[in-house]
Amino acid sequence: MHILIDNFLKIYFSSDFSRRVSRFLKYNETIEYEIKRYHNIMDHSSQSLMATITGGLCLAYLFGMISQKIKISPLVGYLTAGFIIGPFTPGFVVNTVLASELAEIGIILLMFGVGLHFSLNDLLSVKSIAVPGAIIQVLITTLLGFILSRCIGCEIFSGVLFGLCFSTSSTLVLLRTLEEKKIVCSKIGKISIGWLIVEDLIMLLILLILPVLYNLVNDVVQENHLFSIFIRTLLTMVKVSCFIVLTLMFGKRLIPYLLSKTEETDSRELFTLAILVFAIGIAYASVTLFNVSFAIGAFFAGITLNKSKLSKKAAKDILPLKDAFAVLFFVSVGMLLDPTVLLTYPIQILIILTIIVFGKLFFISFLIKLFGYSYKDSFGVAVNLTQIGEFSFILSKIGTNLHLFSHEVQNLILSGAVISIIVNSFLVKINNVTGFFRK
Q: C-alpha distances in angstroms, 85 versus 6, 11, 95, 204, 285?
């Protein structure tokens, strides 16, 4: 078609003019092609996004309900949903990249909620047992995990991170268990929450220094320039310190003020939007400006509202979003679960399960008994804490992103987490029915 037009123009017009018209037609055709291509990409992206959200949430709801009916944690259902729509099972597979990005929002809102509910008073009331006990327990379980990691061929730094994945309990599972048993304010409940807070603080510290340690180890191995390593480490710590100081100094004044002004509008949508903006905005700023992780940024965003008179309203309004994206986080984790790992490494899975469930059950109950508590209290707290969850998933994901964990090692951690949550649900149920250690 263009050749005919070009020939026609050559006959009736000058060659220069015909070249311009021909170039214009080709340009116009290119524009039309790019517009169609853009629409195709947008249609594909929107369909992929909708398929990921719809498939993930629908199956999470289905298997969450099934889990609830058989009296185990809904987290197991969410992980199962992710496994079914993941790349390692036949049939419908969602976009794993989109699921991972949605999971980041889940992590942000999850950590924002942790910061929002972080209570120093709960920790201080049981500090004599929770602080030393949790620290000792984290060290022991990390050591046991480290020994196992060396047996399966991990390097020293990877092995420490591998062990840390087994040392912290699931916030969601624990709080749900305490609320169901209505013992949040009991002695067992306070010790469990205090213990969990100390574990969370340790994990937050690990998340904070992990990138620095990783760069330090790599530079020592590859460059051996100790002075440059020291400078980079110092700059990182300065950035982190600046972020914490700026967030706590200005955030504690500015954010509650802005929220109070937003509340005066009597618009629930604006108030919820403001909370979401602060949570995601501070988390994003922490990464782009200060090289701090999303998780840490979101945690301190929650801290800024911790003592505010609007903190309860903020927690209530953000709860549906937090729960929905938290579900997507666990769905995305389930998508990473490779069933071949269970068949390939059954002995390693069994050892991991022994460390997480029975190792923690023994050491936690033993430590609490040493501090003069009864067998009932010791065993009750230990049962509540014998699983791993959110921080383990986050650490395993970071380890994989930093190429510290292979796909198989990550799946060993994920498999151990899923099975530990299932076993913990049954342990809690058995403890309720039989009443172990009543005295």
A: 54, 63, 9, 31, 33
